[in-house]
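Sat 14:20. Reprocessing the chain from the morning session after the first attempt stalled halfway. Input below, unchanged.
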Amino acid sequence: MIKAISDQEIVASFSSGIVVTDCQGIISHINRQSEKKLGIVASDLIGKSIAEVLPFFHACITECLESGKPLMNQLIEVVQGQLVVNVNPVLRDQVIVGAILNFRASDTFEASARKSDSYRELNRQLEAIIAASSDGIWVCDAKGFVVTINSASEKLNGIKAKDVIGKNVSELLDKKSFDQLVTTKVIASGRQETIVQHIKKTNRVLLCTGTPARDENGRIALIVVNERDMTELENLRKKYAQSQKITEKFKEELSERTLRELENNTIIADSIPMKQIIQKSLKLAHIGASNILILGASGTGKGLLAKFIHKNSNRREDPFVEINCAAIPENLLEAELFGFEKGAFTGAAEIGKVGLIELAQGGTLFLDEIGDMPINLQTKLLKYLDDKQFRRLGGTKSINVECATISATNRDLRDRVQNSLFREDLYYRLSSFTLEIPSLCDRRDDIPRLVRFYLEKYNKKYNRSTHISSKVVAQLQNYSFPGNVRELKSLIENGVVLSEDASLDSYFANIEKKSSPFLPVLDMPASSKPIDLSETLREVEKQLLVKAKQHCETTRQMSLYLNICQSTVVRKLQKHGL
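Finished this time. Tokens:
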């Protein structure tokens, strides 16, 4: 009688690979086809957990044991290729006592389909798309086992596909290959998730988005992860943040510097002309006026008045940015005003530079010596004043800056307009409101308090205790001060520092000789005859004009020499018949 074929012989003879486990996932049977297809030895694996020795089957076995339902046609990627897996529970008295898994190569399962041209073309296209993508792509199954990754992802993460395919993402995290993976978040939430991931191995910053793909029953079948390299963008963001910090620091320093200067200096206004100027300035400050033009001879305090207006306006908490249009070379003035982009010209900074106009955002831009601005740059300034927008040197993006504008000059702008040295439209744009500071000789009532103010300031600065008598102060009131307040300030400082005595009276005894090298000395014969002051002043003025004519060729040069307007020079020359 022929012996009956045993169950083990049947299992061993199957063309499909078969793996059987108990209810705890411990392997009890492995057939010869499994050994052949997976390159394993059954005796080495029986009695061990499938999670340890065949981890790519672990998810399917676990799901079947937990649900008690069969899993059919599951695609699993292993080193040997893609497998089609079926898992069925083993029941005893309606209790699950194990699971039986059978598998075969997907090539066999889909042989007929693979022979079709449309299948091959579609497969080729999908493989080409994934391989050609500059973004990294991961595909994982519903349990988090890696199905495939493309070459871009290998480069971004510094890994090899063969080292991660078939492994669960939780295993990669346990081995600290990654600090986080978006796949775990998608599995937990069941919806699309995005994270920013720093890859230490390659020092790249990746924007990772995991998207679940669902089957016909609405269950997650696959998770597709897209990785975009954000390293350069992150570097630019850091540079921009650094640039913003520098900009904010500049703004704070500019504001502090303005406040310090106003604390260390003050506008003395005892004379009627200066009281009128201060009153008008305060009114303009309170209404938030812009395009204010301050006129006055050199040394009268135009910059100080501009700061005074800013401090008393609603922009006082924002920057006060000052630029001297005559002190910066013409070829650099545009870059200083409007800034420049990286590589705008030879020697340009790596990340470009913020212009002074941009730094004045929300505050006040003070254009000192505006009359000396090059004619070609006046056009760009006018366009900014009209539109409140400009472009950096070498840039293409328009930048919007809203700030008040105050200009100052000791030049006769009308005369410069007539001589085509200053744009007429810019002149009218800058001079919506005009303030003209009188020379010190026209505000002599301010001199006593100015003397006391600077005497106290420099005594404190140089640790001195000097003083001046009222008689000498009266003498200073009669001096012309061609250098205006700046000259008075310099005289007091020199007296405090250089005087050997506590009293500065002797130091200022011959004030004209100390301070005015070209001031003519009148021949005043000893006589009891009264002096005609008006005639004497007229004669002094004439001698000054004669002296200036000897040194200068044009009335423009004379205006600079005498520190008065050109039109005033012409008028006085006509007055004296010169």
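The domain at 7-109 is CATH 3.30.450.20 (Beta-Lactamase).
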